[in-house]
Amino acid sequence: MTTATTGQPEERDLLQAAFRSFDEAAQTLQQSYTALTARVEQMDVELADSNEALRRQLCENEAMRMHLNGILESLSTGVLVVDEREVITRSNLAAEAMFGATEGELRNRVASEVLTRLGVSVCDRPQRLGQTVVSISQVPLRKDSNGGSSHLILIQDVTRIYQLEEQLQRKDRLAAMGELIGRIAHEVRNPLGSVELFASMLQRDLEHDSSAKRYAEQISQAVQSMDRLLANLLLYTRPARMARGWHFSEPLIHDSIKLAAHAITKVPIEIRVDIDPDIASLWCHDGQMKQVILNLVVNAVQAMPNGGRLTVSLQKELPQTLGIPSVRLTVRDSGVGIDPDHRSRVFDPFFTTKDEGTGLGLAIVYSIVDAHQGRIDVHSTIGQGTTFTIILPHPPVGSASGEIQVSEGKEYESDEDEHINCELALAEEWLHE
């Protein structure tokens, strides 16, 4: 009885100790659970932040990719991305336009084969690609990885630079030739005047039907022909002093075409004139601009011996072409075209491919356009025709200094205009190119 009584407190103590241990374990578990819950919540926040940062990074990367892709596609330089096997993996719009192919047609093709097929190669010198002059170079493609030898092929359009270099060389040539021509023309013209005077006196004194009088007339005609040639030489070398004014575009162009009627009527020519109605007037020297259009029209007609289409157009030009407001005057024919080897020399004086050509027509055109602070370019394809493009300054009406308002029925005249009009009237006899 005593043993049972004394055992009960001991059992209670053990039971109480067990409960305390259980409580302590439960508290520890609760604390661990609370800590774990807090950690999970913290990890959720960190994961959400990481996901947001990753999302932002992906958005930034996508935006950067689109931005770089936009830059690549906006470049005027053609770009081909080539891998280690010389196979094209990417191209931009400029390259596709230059090669006349889509990205799908260029991709997975060997770059050297594509270039060879177009008649060009990777080198420093300028090369012709159709109507465009290009420079093709190759640079390594920089990557973070060490493997591979990918590179970029860059196709740079240097047409305008090439044209400017040609113009600079042409100006140097023409300046030297012009000085020589001017001196010779003046020296020859003085004794030529004496020959003309004596020939006129002989015609007056000799009998009407005598052979000697006919010889004197032939001498006089030959002297006049030489004088016209010298007059055009002096026109080519004349300093750029002219009285420019506003002249109605349509009458000026149509009158110039009428002056070329002697050449146009010889072959079946379809003439088209396209004048922008917003360009009512041209800021130019009337007589000299007629000279320019006349020369180009006759030259175009002579390039179509079997007939064809002649188009004269006047349109607005982008201001950045000359850096000021300007217009574009084009004379286009469907004739035989110009040999590429001759294209850079067409504006040189005395250069002609025609049996009866003087080689002065286009040289005079270039001189007059240059005196107008303009620019003239030529584009030609053998068998398809030639286009002469003239860019002329076109200041706002009323803003040009020394403005002369010219009506359609009354034109500004000076001694120089009379000289020009005389040359225009005699165009049939001397104008060959």
Explain what the structure shows.
This protein has 433 residues and is α+β, with helices and mostly antiparallel strands. The chain is built from 12 helices and 12 strands. The longest helix is centred in the N-terminal third of the chain and has 73 residues, at 2-74. It starts with a helix and ends with a helix. The chain has 4 domains: 1-74; 75-157, 2-Layer Sandwich (Beta-Lactamase), CATH 3.30.450; 163-237, Helix Hairpins (Orthogonal Bundle), CATH 1.10.287; 245-430, Heat Shock Protein 90. A 5-stranded antiparallel beta sheet has the order 2-1-5-4-3. Strands 7-9-10-12-11 form a 5-stranded mixed beta sheet, covered by helices on one side. It has helices at residues 2-74, 93-99, 103-106, 111-117, 159-205, 211-237, 249-259, 261-264, 286-302, 361-371, 415-425, 427-430, and strands at residues 78-82, 88-91, 123-129, 132-140, 151-157, 245-248, 269-275, 281-284, 308-317, 326-333, 375-381, 385-393. The radius of gyration is 42 Å and the shape is rod-shaped. Strand 11 and strand 12 form a beta hairpin.
* Biggest pleated-sheet summary: 5 strands, antiparallel
Number of domains: 4
Helix content: 40-55%
The order of strands across the largest sheet is 2-1-5-4-3
- Total strands: the figure is 12
C-alpha end-to-end distance: 148 Å
Apparent shape:
rod-shaped
**Could you name the ranges where pLDDT drops below 50 across 5 or more consecutive residues?**
401-433
Q: Label the CATH architecture of the largest domain.
A: 2-Layer Sandwich
Order of helices and strands: HEEHHHEEEHHEHHEEHEEHEEHH
Question: Gyration radius, to the nearest Å?
Answer: 42 Å
CATH superfamily of the largest domain: Histidine kinase-like ATPase, C-terminal domain
CATH topology of the largest domain: Heat Shock Protein 90
CATH class annotation of the largest domain: Alpha Beta
Mean pLDDT: 80
Percent in strands: 15-25%
Structural class: alpha+beta
Count of helices?
A: 12
